[in-house]
Design a protein that fits this description.
The complex is a heterodimer of chains A (254) and B (804). Helices cover 38% and strands 24% of the residues of chain A. Chain A contains 9 helices and 10 strands. Chain A has helices at 54-61, 83-92, 108-118, 124-138, 153-165, 183-198, 210-216, 234-239, 244-253, and strands at 16-25, 28-38, 43-47, 69-74, 77-78, 93-96, 171-175, 202-206, 219-224, 227-232. In chain A, the strands form 2 sheets. Chain A has a 6-stranded mixed beta sheet with strand order 6-7-8-3-9-10, with helices on both faces. Chain A starts with 15 loop residues before the first strand and ends with a helix. In chain B, strands 11-5-13-1-6-19 form a 6-stranded mixed beta sheet. A 4-stranded antiparallel beta sheet of chain B has the order 4-12-7-8, with no helix packed on it. A 3-stranded antiparallel beta sheet of chain B has the order 14-15-16, with no helix packed on it. Classes of the chains: A alpha/beta (254), B alpha+beta (804).
Chain lengths: 254, 804
Amino acid sequence: MSEHAAPSATAVEPIISCRNVNKWFGDFQVLRDISVDVAPREVVVVIGPSGSGKSTFIRCINRLEEHQEGEIIVDNIVLGHDVRNIAAIRREIGMVFQQFNLFPHLTVLQNITLAPQNVRRWSKEKAEAKARELLERVGIPEQAEKYPGQLSGGQQQRVAIARALAMEPKIMLFDEPTSALDPEMIKEVLDVMKELALSGMTMVCVTHEMGFAREVADRILFFDQGRIVESGTPEALFDHPQHPRTQLFLSQIL
Amino acid sequence: MASLSEPTHPTLVYSDVPLRPPPRRARGIWAWMRANLFKSTFDTVVTFITTAFLIWVISGLFTWTITQANWLIVTRNLRVFMVGLFPIDDVWRVNLGALLVSFAVGFTFAAYVVIRWRRLILPLIVLALMIVIPPITYALTPPTDAYFAAGSVAVVSGSETEMPQEQVAFLGRAGETVRVELAAQGHSDETLITLQGFTDRAGAALFNAAANRFAAQDELASLETALAGDLLTDAQRADLTEERDGLTIPPSPSETYTLNSTAVRASILDGRTLDVLATITLDPNAEPVFDEDGSEVMTQVMIFPLPADGWYVLEKVLVDEDAEANVLLRTTGIVPVLERNLTSSDEYVRITDDFTVADFRPENDGRDIPFISLTENAYRGSRTFADFMRLYTAPMLEMLARALVPMTLLASLGVLMQMAIVRLRPAPPRGASPAAASRALVFPLWTVVLIVFFILIYGIDGLTPLKLGSLVASFIWVGWMFFAGMTLNRVWGRPLLGALLVLGAAQIAVAHNVTSGIVLVDVAIALIIWTIVGLMAARQGAGMRHRFTPRQQVTGLAISGGLWLAAFILIPLLAGAGNGDDLLPIVETRRWGGLLLTMVLTVVALLASFPFGILLALGRRSSLPVVKWVCTVYIELVRGVPLITVLFLASLLVPLVNPALATVENAIRAMVGLTLFSAAYLAENVRGGLQSVAAGQEEAARALGLSSTQIILLITLPQALRAVIPALVGQCIALFKDTSLVALVGLLDLTGIAKAVTSQAEFVGLQTEAYVFISVIYFIFSYVMAYVSRRIEASGSGVVRRFG
């Protein structure tokens, strides 16, 4: 409904800037006039009912989906049809998927070192050192030589996070990272994401984990039918939702 | 199976209901049979019917194989089946290639399969039987009989009239014994039909005459019995009587020719000079002679040990030359001879043991003396088991053993080398499987083996011993560069690498004889290629530096250097010893045939069609409409056409289209046709695999910033190919058997050779044996391929769990 200003009061250049983004799948409009700014080091959590366009929105940011109208600027690079821009943007964004999407024919270590070696042209030693350091960071250093099929869901998602972090991105996108996990394993993944947020990573996260959002998010965006219906800080949104749709949604979740 | 490697929380132990192993089913073979074969009435009935059917089929096959099959066609033509019309002097090259491949197979097998010694017992037993049965057979069975007729009367049997011959030539070895005597079977008709052995035409006529007489007598007797019955109508009686009266009983041969009633003189002559070496007068009316002890002395048998290898002549003449009689002689130690004509060389070979004498044949007054051969002297009578083992089975097993034993030895060597490498390997990286280091050698080994194999069977123009030494040294030099790359970080590392590069250039210069002053284009190309390969090896070595201790690195350097020097010096010395300047003369592809050609066609078509098929599959899924359309049209067109028409097009029409292509050899055209055909089918298989890769894989790869090419090569294709391994190997097996169609365009592959061999005069009518033999060969290779496919599927690379 209303436009949202950047949350940080200081005039920091937004690292992601979307202006009047519109997207259609065929005849069906899935994003309607989306305008959002995300400041560096900001954690934005996107919530909403299914089909509301939240996944499509974050997939547009790293060009996994093409937007037909509007403007997306990531780190001062305009996201358009220019392949070099797209490649540059993708190098700066890491993404974690709901279905993990690990490469099953490679070991965990190879999964993580694949992109740095082939895209950033790191040497094998440098990539492996970084990979082992990241595995330490996400808490599973001993799984380095295993194949993804031998790990539990929570471990796989943590490997996926490490794989995305290996490219040293400036922004991390999370598309419902814990939705496919056993309840017992959600906590270990959320812990990693919390640590990541606290360390200053810019994150845009689509999730249903309200507890996580309340703890870590700087701003919450509520999507419905392709529009940002309401946005605000977690306290503002969860405790005092303004829009009736927001109120309806929250009453069914919380 | 996603097993938790470590539990997220400690597991409790419930002590009130402890874990137990599952209840044991009733053990023992009877329990198993009861549970699986006879569980219900229906089960039992099905089991019995199927077992009875299996026994009927298998025993029928077995009986035919043992008692009726004539395996001479396989034994005497094994070389032709294996390599076709390859020049006989160069067959050693194919043998060497086969040994190298056996080594590589053993090496690969041991790298991927845990060797359980118990599993090898069955093949080893089969091999041991193959080695042991022939000598036992020769020791235990009596030599085969050969019957010859002598005399002055032409023998008439039915429509045949055969005149006994005075002389017949045969091949013999020094020390073998020839035995000649009057045939006991010649006394009467009843004994005539019991003879079993090789017979000349006149003897066969005697045999047939006796058989016909008995057949006629039997028919007469049955007609008489029929006429004696009461329940005949007049018409039937009239018919039968007419038949009986019209029946003529042929005369008794033993009476007509007064067989074995006159004396005959049998002699063995030398083949060249026709001098009489031994002679005996065989007189049926002779008195028995006794010596001092009162025991009978055998005077009616000639036992003559042959003095030397070569041709001999058996001469049989009646003592009384005017007598109108015939005599049947029985001999042992005289074996039919084949004239080899498939390779258009005049060679005479004994059928049992390949004993051969070149080119010369005994003659009498300028006319060739007929020799005992399979066409003239076929085996008559029902075959005894001993003769079957001695004449057909033992020689075949001997030939097969001669081929299989060296190959098995080399394969075992490969296995042992693999085990040695696993013992001596450098430390693998943390957590990696221990076999990974030795598996890394499999791909380079096969590359080298295949290259060497093709060099061996095609040949190199003007390969001097020095060039050969330098070629081998080049391969060793690559290994030397590998270790040099490892030591680059040392003080003397870079100078060493520089020195090695200079040496490499020098060895290429020597190989191409650049000292004559002319620098040719191919020298430059060779220089570039080898330098690139050497530098790649050095880079690889540098990457693996941390896996070897410094001492191991220096040892590796020293050993490589020593081997390189040895190759350069020793090989020219050894190979040059009297072999002249052309070690591997070129053998054109039209001389390739048999199993060799089948394997070459299969391997080349597979190696070429794989990349082509993958490109077609990717093209068909491409978003560019032109590429997609072209690939789709090609695939559908080629899949809609039978392979035989593709081969005909390639072989017959292409030269008409473009005369310049007429010089391309037929085998090459067949390879191109097979490649194009196989690529279309492969493309469809790969496309199925590509569709099975989860969409999220490509998304995740794109999100990481990988380019489209990288995504296809690193992510999509590996998963796609692993998913369709059964289909891919099935395609390989189908291609292997489809190569048999090239027989219809005139190429002599395994099937074509079988047709050619059975058209020889001595082997007409033996198609069944030839085709059974090649079917067994096709089956063995197909089974091995299917086994490899199952192993690949079962190993970790096949079981790829798609998570996410």
